[in-house]
Amino acid sequence: MISLSGAGMLPEWQPRPKTGYVDLSYWDILQSAQQQGYVWKGNNPRRHPGFVSFPYYEGPDDEVLEDNSIPGVVDRLKVLTDNHNLIATDSKDNREVLRDLRELVKA
Amino acid sequence: MRVSVVVAAVVLLVIGVSGCSGTGRGGNVEEGQDMGLTWQEAKADTQKMELEIAGLIPPDKIVSIEQKETGMLFSCSKTEHNWNGATTITVVPGTEIEPIVKDIEEHYLDSRFDIKTRLNVMGRYEAQLRSPDTAEIYILGEDFVPGTIRIDSGSVCFTLPEGVYPGGDF
């Protein structure tokens, strides 16, 4: 089972013993909120021991996220939102994810 | 930073977090990447380059080269696409693939491409030849079938003729 920047699971959810669980994500608006524990009370694919997580992919405009100024907050939110939307698209900018999905599905 | 987090939380409340509904066209969506080629021309250029890269593999290591006849389109923007194909090279059993990939990577140092390398999701070494100015890209590394090298390609962007549906084989 592959999670694409998945949000979270119900508290009673448990991984099946013979199923592999993977999360693929950019650093995005959801991941940012999850890191603070705001989403599904922290019961997220990225943080659940039943999931294998890989390093965050690099979004096409991630350099914007390095600007920590208050005026830059709007641009950062746009990039974080775009990154969240990107993970499930056929955009050329999502190529590494698509190539890795092919590997995971064929494995 | 705290401001970002608070605003992010507000935005999340607005968009909802239990079921994400993206636009289907995320990422870099600016227009104007069309290089003026037809999709057929972009495909032909890209396939030619796939074979140029494959041709850098020592001939005595090659069992076969198989170029896919068709590819698929990815989106460059809301109105533009690029063509994506692949060539698979089967090498002689026992051949180490990573040194071959690194030799090809070295060949393209100081070329028209930027080079990025990474370990893919399965931990296999991968080299990317990326045009700094267009969407053109070639990614090579060991495929999931042992003893094979796969070159994935992406062309420059183009605009499809009106009425052409971008799904299916191209």
Task: Note down, in words, how this protein is organized.
Chain A contains three helices and three strands; from the N terminus they run ββαβαα. Chain A is mostly helical. Chain A has one domain (2-9, 19-106). In chain A, helix 1 links the parallel strand 2 (22-24) and strand 3. The longest helix of chain A is centred in the last third of the chain and has 14 residues, at 73-86. Chain A is flat and about 50 Å long. Chain A starts with a strand and ends with a helix. Chain B has 170 residues and is α+β, with helices and mostly antiparallel strands. In chain B, strands 1, 2, 3, 4, 5, 6 and 7 form a seven-stranded antiparallel sheet that branches. Chain B has one domain (30-158). Chains A and B meet through helix 1, helix 2 and helix 3 of A and helix 1, strand 2 and strand 7 of B.
Distinctive features:
heterodimer; A: mainly alpha; 3-stranded parallel beta sheet; flat; B: 170 residues; 7-stranded antiparallel beta sheet; 3 helices
Mean pLDDT of chain A: 93
N to C succession of SSEs of chain B:
HHEEEHEEEE
Portion of residues within helices of chain A? 25-40%
- Biggest sheet overview of chain B: 7 strands, antiparallel
Number of strands of chain B: 7
Kindly report the average pLDDT value of chain B.
88
What gyration radius of chain A follows from the Cα positions, in whole Å? 15 Å
User: Tally of extended strands of chain A?
Assistant: 3
Number of helices of chain A: 3
- The helix count of chain B comes to 3
Strand order of the largest sheet of chain A: 1-2-3
Task: Point out poorly predicted stretches of chain B.
Answer: 1-18, 23-28
Largest sheet of chain A: 3 strands, parallel
What distance separates the N and C termini of chain A?
12 Å
- What amount of the residues of chain A lies in strands? 5-15%
Global morphology of chain B: globular
Structural class of chain B: alpha+beta
Sheet/helix structural class of chain A = mainly alpha
**Radius of gyration of chain B over alpha carbons?**
19 Å
In total, the number of domains of chain B comes to 1
